[in-house]
Design a protein that fits this description.
By secondary structure, the protein is of the alpha/beta class. It contains 13 helices and 12 strands. Strands 3-4-12-9-10-11 form a 6-stranded mixed β-sheet. The protein has a 4-stranded parallel β-sheet with strand order 7-6-5-8. Strands 1-2 form a two-stranded antiparallel ribbon.
């Protein structure tokens, strides 16, 4: 939905807002199932524990338990009753990807892999380099040669001892290439969408849901999450679903995907009312230095994210670069959080749904996935 076109018609905007937020509708519950994994009372699940020099490393000593604060100023600005911010920039390399990187590097170590490798636009590569060093496994990071890679990301990867490979093509092409190299050399393939990698990643991101529950002692009404490949949103949903099945929460939050107007198949698939992921044409992807963490013509865990949106009666929408930059600035000024513009897409979409005449009741959580080091 193009909110710029709808902005001139107040009644239309109000209708759009109410339909998307499901005002007047009760979210359908999913029945619990017996015999499934039950989260512990604190909401946390058991994690794979790596060893360093024969000593077990507890993942909680390094990742997670990130900042969770209520933002009254931005709640008023966005037109919602209560707004909470989950800032993943507190993780060691500044993004939520540290969670899955440590889990995957640990798995690579436990399998005796000679190295671990993956394609990245920068953030996952940085996280993987850090985690691989911690787990004492060599890391190889494959980067699309044409990407706007911040100097901080390169420095962190090289400081951690990772070998960087710049390859021609888009991100999806480099995923295929790096997976091929892994197969040839016997390295652990940490690329998204693979059997084994997907399950470990969803469990790692489920911890975000457990932490939100731990701090709120309930589920929020809505969770807004940036999407590229869709893994983070799918993992958070996975965590809340486990909490629901364990009878810790009464209802699942509505999952809301936010991304760039310049190329994301999860959002486009939802707006086209498709329940099956639809890839974009390559030419539809327009990368900028602000939206690159969100752009994909193929989302490797997109179907899982799309399923989560539909199963919780959620929705998905776009944010412009201008709006993402605006909310990155507001987060810095109002909350003292240095957030990447792409990560601020959650608040940009939330704000565009607001009606200045009415405060939307309920609790909203915005996932802020990355820290801005510039």
């Amino acid at each position: 939905m193009n909110f710029d076109n709808a902005r001139g018609d107040a009644s239309s905007l109000s209708k759009i807002r109410m339909e998307k937020l499901g005002i007047g509708k009760k979210m359908s519950k999913e029945s619990g199932e017996e015999g499934k994994h039950t989260p512990r009372d604190d909401g946390a699940s058991e994690a794979v524990v790596p060893k360093r020099n024969g000593v077990k490393i507890k993942w909680k000593d390094f990742v997670g338990s990130t900042t969770f604060v209520e933002s009254r100023n931005l709640a008023r600005y966005s037109g919602v009753e209560r707004l909470f911010l989950k800032f993943e920039g507190n993780n060691p390399t500044g993004t939520q990807k540290d969670r899955i990187a440590l889990a995957l590097a640990s798995l690579a170590k436990s399998q005796g892999a000679a190295a671990v490798a993956a394609a990245s636009c920068g953030n996952f590569g940085t996280a993987l380099a850090w985690a691989a060093k911690l787990c004492e496994v060599p890391a190889h990071v494959y980067i699309p040669a044409g990407y706007h890679l911040p100097e901080d990301r390169v420095k962190r990867m090289t400081d951690a001892g990772a070998e960087i490979h710049y390859e021609e093509g888009q991100y999806e092409d480099v995923v295929v290439l790096s997976s091929k190299v892994c197969k040839e050399k016997g390295w652990f393939d940490a690329n998204p969408g693979l059997d084994g990698v997907r399950e470990v990643s969803l469990e790692a991101y489920a911890e975000i849901a457990y932490e939100i529950y731990r701090d709120m002692r309930r589920a929020p009404d809505y969770v807004f999450c940036p999407v590229g490949n869709g893994t983070t949103l799918a993992g958070i949903y996975h965590g809340f679903k486990k909490l629901y099945e364990a009878h810790k929460i009464d209802e699942l939050p509505r999952m809301v995907a936010t991304s760039t107007r310049r190329g994301n198949p999860i959002v486009k698939s939802f707006l086209m009312k498709s329940r099956t992921m639809l890839d974009l044409e390559r030419t539809e992807v327009k990368e900028t230095k602000f939206n690159e963490p969100l752009t994909n013509w193929h989302s490797f865990d997109g179907q899982e994210a799309l399923d989560a949106i539909y199963e919780t009666n959620g929705f998905a929408d776009y944010a412009s670069d201008t709006r993402m930059q605006e909310f990155s600035r507001l987060l810095r000024e109002e909350e003292g959080l240095n957030v990447l513009p792409a990560s601020a897409s959650t608040l940009a979409v939330l704000h565009d749904l607001a009606d200045t005449r009415v405060t939307i009741k309920g609790t909203f959580v915005a996932i802020l996935t990355g820290r801005d080091f510039t």
